[in-house]
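FYI - complex with iron/sulfur cluster, inputs then prediction.
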Amino acid sequence: MQIATIFDIKRFAVHDGPGIRTTVFFKGCPLRCWWCHNPESQLPEPETVEIERKVDGRRVPARRTYGEQVGTAELMEIILRDRHYYAESGGGVTFSGGEPLMQPEALSELLRACRKAKLHTCVDTCGHVVATDFERILDDTDLFLYDLKHMDPLLHLKYTGTGNGLILSNADRLLEAGARVIFRIPVIPGINTSDEETGRMISFLEERSDRCREVHLLPYHRIAGQKYSRLGKTIRLPEVKEPGRKMMETLQKRFEQTGLEVLIGG
Ligand code: SF4
């Protein structure tokens, strides 16, 4: 049995794939996106930080650990608790992160167990992983939620810490292998929302529209401030505001003009 390092489990999730789902968040990510709203997901090992708790109206020092190691059998026991909800809603299980493919052995064991239990499976990935790790989970994954963050390799490097070459080539490998893929674009005003960048994203998607017609636009949320300060990390985008409804709808229309199905949110 494999052990997975996870930092959260969300039951009754409705934004991580179709229907009602359980989402398991793996710890460890090869990217360092400036807008990451789960900074506690980035390091592969559990992290303990100093915090304050309120006890009887007073603030007292305490500790909090992000991340724990859990056996795959225990995770399956949690996942299977809601199998009736999955069946009723067309839902299932999503493995997210961080990057779930940073722990390929545990992930593939969980996906095999889900397949055996006839659960719909989804892997939410940044794509920057060894190509052969995708191959080993291909048969047991019903849907890939695949992030596209920036099409310009230098700006991708600047804002995430890695280039996008491996990400784009892995996306094509998955599509060529017949995997079902939904591309997801985090919308970060001023970072990947220029006309030029939107045009590059649309061209990429149009060229692959015979194999993938659906795209999700995920609005940036400024919700992780406290987690950054607890972890001693610096917020890299202090000035960037969340995109308003008008901006999201304008982008949605622009993507839709190409015939793609575009959803705001997951
Ligand atoms: S890929 Fe996701 S989890 Fe990893 S750093 Fe970027 S936003 Fe955070």
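The chain has a mean pLDDT of 95. The longest strand covers residues 3-13.
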